[in-house]
Amino acid sequence: MKHNELQQAIAEDIKRLKQLELDIIPARIYYTGLLKLSWRAFWKIGTVFFFAILYVSLTELHSNALAPGLYWEQTRDALLASLMMTIAALIVLIPSLIHYFLIQYHLQNQLKTGVLLVKKLQCCAWLFWGVFIFYASVFASYAELAALYFMLGIAFFGSAMVTYMMMSLEFNRVGLSILLTSIQWWLGKDNPSSL
């Protein structure tokens, strides 16, 4: 899409949003879609947590390093810790996943810029995961196990901040920030908490 075409499409989409009504999403589609999104986020983030924790726990010096079963215990502990941290991270991400699903379901085919918007949001998700992998790898290389959990939390929220800044810059560059503001209004207008 050329610059002028994109500006015109965004202006038309903003007008269309004012007249567009929310359809009721069938329960099976809504919950299945959210479950799939949550599962994708869960295993990607969980894998990073697991390998970071496992790497640090296996590379720390232990007095009983030659004891049989130590590696199994460390793997089990890393799996349990990463599971709990991933669930906590997923709880934080659920509102964003819900908004992404609603935009994808309602607006991808309704707006002229819908496909572009969904593609940009997917790029933001990949950016978040890449930055998170980078931060987790760096912190796992230098942190002790006791400090690693805190550092992984910093990596998670730091990745979210970097992604938000990059997303804001990109959406402002392309001109989608105005459309996103209109979409937030559109999604919130039927929300009982906004009454």
What does the model show?
The protein is an all-alpha fold. Residues 191-195 have low confidence and may be disordered. It has one domain (25-188). The protein is built from six helices and no strands. The chain is elongated.
Keywords:
6 helices, elongated, mainly alpha, 195 residues, single chain, disordered C terminus
The percent range for strand residues is: under 5%
Q: What's the end-to-end separation, in Å?
A: 38 Å
Structural class: mainly alpha
Count of alpha and pi helical runs: 6
Radius of gyration: 21 Å
Question: Main β-sheet: number of strands, strand sense, barrel status?
Answer: none
Low-confidence regions: 191-195
Number of strands: 0
SSE arrangement, N to C: HHHHHH
| Overall residue-averaged pLDDT value | 85
Shape: elongated
Helical proportion?
A: over 70%
The tally of domains stands at: 1
